[in-house]
Design a protein that fits this description.
Structural class: alpha/beta
Strand content: 15-25%
Catalytic activity: D-ribulose 5-phosphate = D-xylulose 5-phosphate
Number of helices: 8
Shape: globular
Pathway: Carbohydrate degradation
Number of strands: 8
CATH class: Alpha Beta
Order of helices and strands: EHEHEHEHEEHEHEHH
Distance between the termini: 11 Å
Strand order of the largest sheet: 1-8-7-6-5-4-3-2
CATH topology: TIM Barrel
Number of domains: 1
Bound molecules: ribulose-5-phosphate, fe (ii) ion
CATH superfamily: Aldolase class I
CATH architecture: Alpha-Beta Barrel
Pfam family, one: Ribul_P_3_epim
Keywords: Carbohydrate metabolism, Isomerase, Metal-binding
Largest sheet: 8 strands, parallel
Organism: Nocardioides jiangxiensis
Length: about 220
């Protein structure tokens, strides 16, 4: 059970200090938005490269960008341990996953809430992580979409059927109130943005979230 806090709701003018407030995190989730794939603009490669020197924690890049085929391998090269592209934006998802792995990073693919998992069943072995969005991508602080829970369950069943080691990440509206539902459905990696950075003690919140998720699996 891994907690990967999103820095989307952190103080973006103080990112170095902000990542040091989540020392117990398993990875730092970095939301890259380009104002094309989603209607919001956040940060990109130069910021990721600068931030790399400010923490030992692995980076989990979530690319909400058009043309990930062009850009995703560069995030691996910039030191991201995991690179997630959206299948809705990728021209050649299998080739892209292989390119990310060839750069030495974990390859991950994201599905928006209305994108089904079933067409990608045979691709699971190509992926180190599958990200199931539990809000429409683009903004932090949105309400968790319960309609995504059956897809998480179906994804977990497909992973079991194929015997793959692929991690199953959920992202969007994950909090102390919703994390158990995600864990019960089969998720094992949890992004939490506003829940962590609106907490008085973000690191304590990371630990609380992990305890709740682990209690479900125990
Ligand atoms: O990818 C994202 C939005 O597109 C963010 O990672 C996500 O929304 C995290 O924020 P919160 O936990 O506040 O929902
Ligand atoms: Fe994200």
């Amino acid at each position: 059970m891994q907690i990967t806090p999103s820095i989307l709701n952190a103080d973006l003018a103080n990112l170095g200090a902000e990542v040091r407030r989540i020392g117990s995190a398993d990875m730092v989730h970095i939301d890259v938005m380009d104002n094309h794939f989603v209607p919001n603009l956040t940060l990109g490669l130069p910021v990721v490269e600068s931030l790399r020197a400010h923490t030992e924690l692995p980076f989990d890049a979530h690319l909400m960008i058009a043309d990930p085929d062009r850009w995703a391998p560069a995030y691996a090269e910039a030191g991201c341990a995991s690179v997630t592209f959206h299948v809705e934006a990728a021209a050649a998802p299998v080739r892209l996953a292989r390119e990310i792995r060839a750069q030495g990073a974990r390859a991950s693919m994201a599905l928006k809430p209305a994108t089904p998992i079933e067409p990608y069943e045979d691709m699971l072995a190509e992926l180190d992580m599958l990200l199931i969005m539990t809000v429409e991508p683009g903004f932090g602080g949105q309400k968790f979409l319960d309609m995504c829970l059956p897809k998480i369950r179906r994804a977990r069943a497909l992973m079991d059927k194929h015997g793959v080691e692929t991690w199953l990440q959920v992202d969007g509206g994950v909090s102390l109130e919703t994390i158990e539902r995600c864990a019960e459905a089969g998720a094992d990696v949890f992004v939490a943005g506003s829940a962590v950075y609106s907490a008085a003690d973000p690191d304590a919140m990371v630990k609380d979230l992990r305890s709740k998720a682990e209690a479900v699996r125990a």
